[in-house]
Amino acid sequence: MRSKSGKSDYSIAKRIADAFQLPNDCILGSLNMMLTDKNQVYIENYRSILEYTDTVIKVLGKNCRVQILGEKIRIISYNHDTMLVKGKFDEIKYF
Amino acid sequence: MKKFINKLYGYIRLDLEGEDICRFLNICKSKEIFAWDVSNEEERYSICVSIADFFKIKEIARKTKTKVRIKQKCGYPFEINRNKHRKAYLLGIILFFVIMYIMSLFIWDIHFVGLYTYTEDAMIEYLYSRGIKHGVLKKDIDCTSIEKTIRNDFFDITWVSVSLEGTRLTIHVRENYDYETIEETDCEMSDLIADKEGIITSIITRSGTPLVKEGDVVGKNDILVSGNVVVKDEYGTVISEKYTNADADIKAKTAYNYSDKVYITTEKQVYTGENKKSYSFGFMDKSVYLYAGKVKYANYDKTVQQFKLKLAPNFYLPIYWWQTTYNEYKVETIELSEEEAISKLDNNLQYFFDELLEKGVQIIENNVTIIKGDNYYAAEGKIIVIEELGQNVSVENLYQVEDDYEERNE
Questions:
Q1: For chain A, N or C: smaller number of CB within 10 Å?
Q2: Domain B2-81 fold
Q3: For B67, phi and psi rounded to 5 degrees?
Q4: How close is the nearest chain B Cα to the Cα of A84, in Å?
């Protein structure tokens, strides 16, 4: 859905969030990742797992896709919007 | 905690094989089947699910063409099922809970809060004499009657609160620290005598006949205020005579002889860091000492620490252990410098002053001087103070003392 000016609703929501200095992950449902050292990542607001092996995990967010590369990657726990991943991480990138 | 809950309800570790495991995981997520500990090793995936969720997985596995194989069944429900034919094992578990329940019916710890002049041991001994001891059934404990008994038997304990939590009996007490001043006015006929030499600086008599006035020099045991009140008419004839309890606020200038000595060469304990530990165990009133060899140190400090076994903050059990630590130290002779010796003497003097001030004594003159001896420094001199003078002595005791004194002189 688009507004009359041609910009998406998302940008309006983003502008409101920015104006009121509200966290994007709460208002827009953006992917939120919290890294602890090199071996633990806590992912919030993910939509689905795209790929998972012991060397890579690809996660789909609302606005982006993230892949984590490393060794001995394990999903310690996951539920409808949060996931705790442990392993020996080498790289985290958007694709 | 989460691990314990998982174990309590039981869970299954599954091996998954298939082309689209991610789809399997995503469908699990959308159907609110929350798996954990997902790992991958050479095309083989492993996940953990709860027993209830395991039955929901079949449908998803069929849809995603995933082969599901049970790898391991974990948790207490499976343990019990596996060992149901082992009667002793089951009996042991049941017995454990029964013993725990029986143990929780007794008092295993008595704890006092707010004790100041009485020691915890003395109070516990008192409670023992009243039948409240470790190992007494909780239902036999009446907190209100304990409160009453303590209040009646200890006149200086003004407030008691007894509470029973778990296997612990907690007794909160509040003591009255000023009881001594109340106690002194007990006798009915008494004189006020000087308990030390001094010069009277002020006297306010409340009852009795004052025998001294401001500026008088009094010696030890001199009568300051007599309890004998004589009423005379205008010709000086005695109309009535009555003995009362002498009471007055008397302040006098008195002197304290102060002397303190600090030796230049003193011995000091220096801990070597070596220590040895031994343990003893106890159950109810019995204790067993575990022999840990002879202590070979020439000089050592001994510290004993007692521990009580508890399952929860207030669930104490009658199992104790003591850790005895022997810390070795060496005695070293050290020489104090002049500054160190003087500062030590100063500190001691300050401590003495603080003690006097705590008693309500006013220090007006300090004649203490520091002198140096052969191998010591000494602080000597007189401290002039203004303090309260006077001690109530019952008339009977006073005349008895005087009679004894006369007899001895004869």
A1: N
A2: Alpha-Beta Plaits (3.30.70)
A3: -85, 125
A4: 9
